[in-house]
Each structure stands twice: as C-alpha cells, then as structure tokens.
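forwarding from the other thread:

> can someone predict this with coproporphyrinogen III?

sure thing
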Amino acid sequence: MNDTFLKACRGEQTDYTPIWMMRQAGRYLPEYQAVRGNVTFLELCKNPELCVEVTLQPIDLLNMDAAILFSDILIPMEAMGTPLMFHEGKGPIFPEPIRTQDAVNRLRVPDPDAETGFVMETIRLLRRELNVPLIGFSGAPFTLATYLIEGGSSKVFWETKKMMFTAPELFHALMDKITECTSLYLQAQARAGAQALQIFDSWAGVLAPCDFEEFALPYVQRIINDLKDTGLPIIYFANNGATLLDLSVQSGADVIGLDWRINIGEAITRVGEKAVQGNIDPFALLLPEAKLRKRIQGILDGARDAHGHIFNLGHGIHQFTPPAQAKLAVDLVHELSAR
Ligand code: CP3
C-alpha cells in the first residue's frame, strides 16, 4: 500500500510529494466518457460497480497517489428529499428550491447507510481494489445550501444572500439540517472504509470574511468536530478562499486546500502547523513541458517548509484537458520532488 498521501496529511516525512487532482475521474478521460455513454450521470453515481471502475481509471492511467470516491456532493441532498436532475451542459438542477420554513421542515435527515448505501458499497468495493488511499468527501454546508436555495448553479447568489440577510433564522435552520445530514454522511463513509475526508466549499469565496465567520464556518467546525473520533485526516477546501485562509485554519481541518490565486509559500506561513494541498492553476496543465516543469518546481520550492504538502490543482481539472498533460504533471511532480 502506497501511503505517501496519508503521511503528507499527517505532516510526516515522505519520499516524494504525493499528487492527486480534484475531479480526477471525469469527462477529460475518454475511458470515463465510454462508461458515461451508456448511463446518465445519476445512474452512474448510483451504480457501485461503475463508480469503482471510474474511480480507478485515473489511478491506473495517470498514477495518482490517492483515489477519490466517484460520486457528487449533491447526492446526499437528493436523499434529504429534494428532487435532483442533471441536464447535459447545464449542470445540476433542483426544480423545487428550498426558500421557506415549510420547505426546510420537509427536508429529511437521511440514514446514510440506508438511503445512500450505494456510496458506502462503492467505498467497501474500492478498498479491496486499491493500493493507494481512498478519499471520501462531501460538500460544505454553505456550498450545498447555495444549490438548494438557488435551485442549481449560480453566479451572483441573489437568493442565497437574500435569505442570509433578510431571513437569517431560516438560513441557519437550513444550514443546521444540511450540517446534520453531512456529518452523518461523512461518518458513514469513515465506517465504510474511507481513509481521508475532503469537504468541498466551492462557493465560500463569495462571502465577506465576517459573513463566512457567521454563516458558514461554524457548520464546518461542527462537522469536523463530529469526525474527530474517526481519527481520519480531514481536508477543508474553500475555493477562492485566499481571503478566508486565517478563518479556514479555525475549521479544525488537518489539511488546508489552496486554490491557485495565492502564492503557496505565503499561504504556508499563514496556515502554520497544518498540511496544505494544492495549488497549480488547472489551466497551467496546458503549458508546454519546459514551462510546466518550471511551474511545478516553483510550487514545490514554495512548499519546502510546509508541515506536509499534497500536490493538487487549485480546483477541478477542466474537461478539455488532454490526459497526456495530466500524466506529464504527475510524472513531473514525482520526479522533481524525489528526496
Ligand atoms: O473528483 C472526483 O474525481 C470525484 C467525483 C466528483 C464529482 N463531483 C463528479 C462529477 C466530485 C468530488 C465532485 C464534487 C462536486 N460536485 C463539487 C465540488 C467541487 C468543485 O468542482 O467545486 C461541486 C460544486 C459539484 C456539483 C456539480 N456536479 C456540478 C456543478 C456539476 C456540473 C458541472 C460540470 O462539470 O459539468 C456536476 C457534475 C459532475 N460531477 C460531473 C462529474 C464527473 C460531470 C457529469 C457528467 O459526466 O456529465
């Protein structure tokens, strides 16, 4: 078992810097497209055998040092009782957005083993196949709330901020329920065999620091506190979160995910004793080899004094990235970081 990733999460010495990529199983891989060609995205998410297959693809093809469970952050939201659809090219849609106290009351806190058993089954199957650690994940409550309140993806978050600022009690009631669901969901993933857990806060960066502190951070802290007994490393990734770094450290996570908008060395001085994960611009994978090598070397140099560094992209890999470029990046990280 290659446990380099887990060692880096714990801040221990490693032979080289481990790498994985957010959204590493996905549409940029023709092998994923082949599986996806026969089923809808939600059918794929609910079929453990197929989830295992696409989770393994980037491990086998690109030599990643960690696997991330194939699923989606919105799967447990559907289990709360809100219909969810994925439209080609449009992303996720919740046709019945959650905007009233009645709607919040109707949301259920599902038993994760009973109602998202396919996720737990995928984890159990993967653990038999994998020789690298398996990362489980969830969305962070704020990010999940934006999808439920907006009814899908958004650019301005009008409905979300309107609820935060004009009906804060309603917003907190919704966050409370999502948090309860997410906490139980991640605990179930730990029991099923996940070896690290990442919390994706994709939209945290749209919040002012004071609002992040009031409306988002306490819920992340609660989840991470609930997970302490599992002993698993927890990664908290707030996208567009450079201005929230000092607050993110207070989440209680062991590893702080970094997007590419901040210099990694600067970020490391601010996160102190914690490990970091990141942070190359996903589009930098398009650089020609000599420049990509230089870019990767710069990040490795910047992370010299980290208490653990896991190389990653600053956000998910873009669907038009040539797989050969992703493979090149993995090989370069392994070569340039060998100690
Ligand atoms: O990282 C991995 O390889 C594991 C699988 C994974 C997916 N989604 C698969 C997916 C993970 C960890 C996610 C997380 C996720 N899902 C996030 C947080 C990370 C981030 O990108 O900020 C968010 C915000 C979502 C919600 C979501 N799911 C959106 C907005 C979309 C549509 C956008 C798009 O890229 O089309 C999805 C769909 C989705 N989730 C796909 C995949 C592979 C594409 C679906 C397809 O095959 O058509």
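The domain at 4-337 is CATH 3.20.20.210 (TIM Barrel). thats all i got for now
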